[in-house]
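Forwarding these from the shared drive since the link keeps breaking.
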Amino acid sequence: MSRPAPRDFKVADLSLAAFGRKEIELAEHEMPGLMAIRKEYAAAQPLAGARITGSLHMTVQTAVLIETLVALGADVRWCSCNIFSTQDHAAAAIAEVGIPVFAWKGETLEEYWWCTEQALTWEGFSGPNMILDDGGDATLLVHKGVEYQKAGAVPDPATAENEELAIVLKLLRSSSLNWAEVASEIKGVTEETTTGVHRLYEMHRDGNLLFPAINVNDAVTKSKFDNKYGCRHSLVDGINRATDVLIGGKVAVVCGYGDVGKGCAESLRGQGARVIVTEIDPICALQAAMDGYQVATLQDVVGIADIFITTTGNKDIIMAADMAKMKHQAIVGNIGHFDNEIDMAGLARIPGIVKDEVKPQVHTWTFADGKKIIVLSEGRLLNLGNATGHPSFVMSNSFADQTLAQDRAVHQAGGVPGRRLHAAEAPGREGRPAPPGRAGREAHHAHPVAGRLHRRQRRGPLQGRPLPLLTPPGVGRQQMTTVQEAPGLHGHVAELEAVKEQARAEKEGAATDAQHAKGKLTVDERLELLFDSGTFTEIEPLRRHRASAFGMGRRKPLGDGVVIGWGTVHGRRVFAYAHDFRVFGGALGEAHAEKIHKVMDLAIETGAPLVGLCDGAGARIQEGVTALAGYGGIFRRNVAASGVIPQISVILGPCAGGAAYSPALTDFVFMVRDTAQMFITGPDVVRAVTGEEITHNGLGGADVHAGTSGVSHFAYTDERDCLEEVRHLLSLLPANNQEEPPFEPPTDDPKRPNHNLLSLVPTDPARSYDVRAVIEELVDDGDYFEVHAAWAPNVICALARMDGQAVGIIANQPAVMAGVLDIHASEKAARFVQFCDAFSIPLITLLDVPGFLPGVDQEHSGIIRHGAKLLYAYCNATVPRIQLIMRKAYGGAYIVMDSRSIGADLSYAWPANEIAVMGAEGAANVIFRREIAAAEDPDAVRAARIKEYQQELMHPYYAAERGLVDDVIDPAETRWTLIKALRMLRTKRVLLPSKKHGNPPM
């Protein structure tokens, strides 16, 4: 057959052909699969006689596919499968060499379907004998044509349910093609996308599929590379070209978590966005959660996100009503395929809405209230409409699959003569498949991983699922038998099990008995208590140390005294390392440290909490400086992880010397009484240097650090209780600083009145009460998790839930030292504020504070510096911050405890509040000192002046009148008031000035 005339095409600008040819030549270097197929098989012309209609994005990479098909002998006619995806210079280059192509960027829908008809129109033939489809439009047009031809008439376009169907009906009414003859000539279709595959399966299910089909989309080298890695590259490229927004720091919603969604979520998180996934498939939703993403419904997050991306290939994912709820300047885009994922028609019907083009394929839609959203590529594929699509190497994998699938379909259907492209699949001697040919080897040299990919393709022309009428591709039965009968693996597996059994045996027996005799659990028992049952996965269990001095060469136990790995806690991924005291007393050596480094790096890189179960004798003396260097690597990673992932240290045995610094760098420290101790120098050294006599527990036990030093946040009597509380704490924390804390649907009525508060808090500022009772009244189900309960008890720090959301609560405790702030209380609260701010936990501050603790000791010990720590922490916090003044709030302590003046978002007060520089009595003594001293009745004058000061400056509404309190509220309405404020502040975003870091008063 002679080629069609060179003018059989329609493109935007033929003068762009030279530019297109240059880019095609660049792409060829990055598409080794296609180029190797072309080089090896072009001489044999395996596709001679194939008439291929292609309906796929007309890009530079597609041009390489088209020219590969032509090089193998096929005749090709081509159109784009998307009105915006064409690269005009690529289309021009293909037209220039005489290949019919009908595509230009910005086609109307009428033009789009005209182009599809042109690609199906073959001079001298009824039509193509093969279709290469992306989204199924070419296949759909053939089937619709046959359907209406059989029915005897095409329906009136005016009866169509949507604009596009009306256009298709109008085209079919005017078409001169005999659609039944067109369909009879077609030997098969190879489908590129998830959307098109769904269409084909539905047609097959309904008995309407007219010719064989191959699902190229599900080929491993297509779906995993194109859908995941291609989208990971091209999504952010499209967003950046379209909007130039900084993705980092924004909230992005990815609708769908298939392979496309996975790639999109990964790319957005890689840019620094906080990614939320919506997904209806429970397995995909679970994958998203286990990959560290927040999973929510669109309705829950539609008002807080900055970027929305649909990835499903389905319809009605984001509706017009959803877009109406989005925030100002929210960006909406689709990478899942068709424009009906986003309800563009419904958006256009919203009363008063105005569409405005910012630049091609970027439009703002302005609602009647002035709010705008930005829609990319009019709801179609933004990575092609706003950018240039997937990188060439990714498309090489996909398009190599398409080439192989076209060959298989046309030959298996018996349609054309010629040599099979897959001749190398024929069994060689002894029934084994012949080795990959030159194409595979050359592809390997062209790209470091292409060889492996191409060889996999060669063993089975398509890894995806074919539709009926084509036998399943892949490894044949004879090949499978050969693999199953290969010798040697059974013996190796038995050897592996023996090695692992030896490792288990080394730690059992006397070593385990000794651990239990001390009242301690083994490392395996601890991990089973920490993680959801059966979920812990150990890594590097076969690691050994390399030391040889001091007899170390004679004992090299597997695992080297530490177990590392990951599992789930309440269904969410958590990493852990756990010292095994039975091996070298849990002492840290080089290999031991490298294992801990490994799991810390994994936790940081995957964004999951890290728990350290510490039970070790410090640095391994026999390994000298390498052991000390191992601690340095741990400390450096502790700092790198700080504020990125939650870090929890659980002290279950000795933790001495340099080992104690790692827990001190983590967010929370748990200790078990009697068995756990932490200190830099032990009792023997203390005795030798200072002469002081003290026990291990007296020097560094759990109660000492929980109540005196403040090093430990929690102390428990039993390991089981301790680890259960670690699990509880993790349930309140996000996986990392890019996620919201986990939401738990509340069972407690958010509007529940708090009448008890009217009697819990006495109006007399001199009377004490326990603020814990106030916290119980306010939070969901009265449940809160107090941090540092035994240290600096004059301030309470606690995690709780309100309306199902985690909150951090800081409260003065009038029951201890009247609730004054001192050095320890300031430091305790500052550390807690910093933690909550790092992990997006809103802060609620309950004030009843008479001021800072006076005294020489406090001043000389640096109350100014330590108080400034709390001030710095609050001022630096960008999370939602709400202040509630319950009773008195005096002096600098009022300012420091998150007042409006240092950035609290909202400040509420109860009707009996007193906000002043100091108490009325002290103020009167200062202001009226001389008058009182000169009075005949000083007490009467003092009382009068105190009353005057109270009435003038300390009445409950003084601060509210000056805008320093947002409202004075009924205590019984406190819970609902705070919850409403938290709901409003949920979308709060604050950008701090650019700086390397601040310089807090350490």
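-- next protein --
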Amino acid sequence: MKKLSNISIRTKLVLILSLTAIIGLLITSSVLFYTGIKTVRKEEVANITQLADVSSFNLEASILFEDEEDAYRMLSALTVNPSIMSALLYNKNNKIFVKYFHEKIKKDKQIQLINNSAKQLISYQKEKKLEDKSLFFWKKFDVFVPIKMKNNNGTAGILHVIADTQEFRKKVKDLAHSLLLVIGVTFFIIFILAYFFQRIFSNPIYALLTIMEKVPANRDYSLSKEMQRSDEYGALFKGFNIMMQELKNIEKELITEKNKANEASQTKSNFLANMSHEIRTPMNAIIGLSELALKIELNPTSHDYLFKINHSATDLLGIINDILDFSKIEAGMLEIENEDFHLLSDVIDNTLSLNADRALEKKINLSCSISPNVPQFLIGDALRLRQILINLISNAIKFTENNDVIITIKAGNTSDGDVELIFSVQDFGIGISAENRKKLFNSFTQADTSTTRKFGGTGLGLAICKQLTELMGGEISVDSDLGTGSTFKFNVNLKTQDNQSLITIKPKENKIKKIKKINSLDTAKVLLAEDNEINQLIVVEFLKLVGTHVDIANNGKEAVIKALDPENHYDAILMDVQMPEMDGIEATGIIRQQLKNIPIIAMTAYAMDEEKQKFIAAGMNTHVPKPIDSKILYDTLAHWIER
């Protein structure tokens, strides 16, 4: 039945129509065959019986006068029918008076026929009526004819005629062949007719199926089929048209809602971009000026105040970044990059160095263990991987006092070119209760509201970690109890680079290279295109500290004039984006027409990925976000000036 359910409806209809007709044909043929056999049999019996009756009419005198010769002569007349094998004439005492055998009957067969005749005669006399004169078998049949006395005083004897059924079997065989031929021809005709007649049922269905296939292929729900019919097919197509119209209406509504959602998403993106820009601009002044002030000799109280201002501003910037990241993920705007990176130098060293100062303040020992089978040269999003680790390590330090924070990295499932990395961040801090673990990764939720008052935070960090982990094909979990600390585990799926035998960059060597890069900024000449005086002050002072000469352009027009002046030979241009008279993007386009190789670095409070791509497309080489981080500024400038 399962095989039949998988074949087409056309084939099913042909099979059903053909099978139904064939069953009817076989039943009819069987009845005809049975009737034909009975008719042929009746004819055969009638012929033999007629001859036996004629012979019996003249045999009365031979039996009465015991004239065997005359009786044999009369029985020999039965040879007119070649089917008659023998004739046995019994007297009234059931003794054989005369016997006749066809010449082809052998002696042993004659004895057998005589013995069987005696038994059948007794059976005939006991069980059969005189009117039923024949006993029919497949290979022979027997006809018993009583020899009646003319004066109606009983019978003088019985004539037993035994006939061969060869002619009967031949006629039956011919009848069977004829019926089989008729059945075969009829079956072929039925199959052809069934194939054509099934179209009456299947064509409307296939017409509907054709339309249904076009709907998803062409995304066109207006493809309806009109059929002027009053049967079930008409009702089916009418219902299909109504359904298509409903789907079309739903599609219109969905398109409208999608457009609204896109508009809302774009509005949200614009709002986030503007909010980011407006918040980062004053934050740049707070963080930059406080960092510069900390480099001046101050009394302990002033230094402490400035340090706390800088520290709080950095925390506030982290919260702003979390909100922007969360919003981008929720809007589906954050994409995972696939770039080559080195696990130790690009992720682990960077992560540990960013958390080292806070760990040192709280006398916490940071340790990291990497299994030997973990590949170092990978392909993936190192930035987002660092973001997850920084968040988890930062939380571990936040909720731990005078103890260790242990990071372990192991390799999970590996295949050709793919590897699963399993990260674990363990602390021995306050821990989390079972009830609070359930809501730990929810947005804007913290394990305990009391921790917000004591430790701070928005409750977005772990939600972002969860979403970033899932974007990289993994998942994150926590194992914790109150008072025993917490262990956060997450896994990500990355690709491995072909060559894993490259020389590993050691942390000390990396630091030496960074120092050399920063030293290369000494005597460098940079053009700063920036309209905000505070931002100008911050960048100039930062670059003075490393010996870089800085020229200032207050807008895009001035930047173009100074950059294209043949007397100025700048090693790099720091370009703000939003400026009066001419913005940074337009200025970059004009400069790039003549200066193809000079590094132009966007320096702006716009931090959204699509904004960064816009800067790159305009001809800028890279992006330094505001608030300005002096380390990032030095590294970026040194990198592009060296290139």
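The chain is about 55% helix and 20% strand. The first strand starts at residue 84 and ends at 91.

- D.
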